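[step 3/7] fold_predict: job queued, chain A
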Amino acid sequence: MNSAETKMGVLGGVSFSLMGQIQSTVMQTILLAALGATVSFFISRFLQWLIKIKDRK
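[step 4/7] structure written:
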C-alpha cells in the first residue's frame, strides 16, 4: 500500500467521524461553500475555453 493512499484513508476516516460531531448547520455551510467554489472554478474554466475558441476564429 502506498503511503499517500494510507494518508488519504486516514484523512477520510477522520473527516467522516468528525461529520457526526459537527452541527448540521456548520456542515451544510461547509459543503455549500465547497460546492460553490467548485462550480465557480469549472464555470470560469469553461468560459476561458469558450473565449479561446472565439479568438481562434
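[step 5/7] annotate
DSSP finds two helices and no strands in the chain.
Residues 40 and 48 are 12 Å apart (CA to CA).
exit 0
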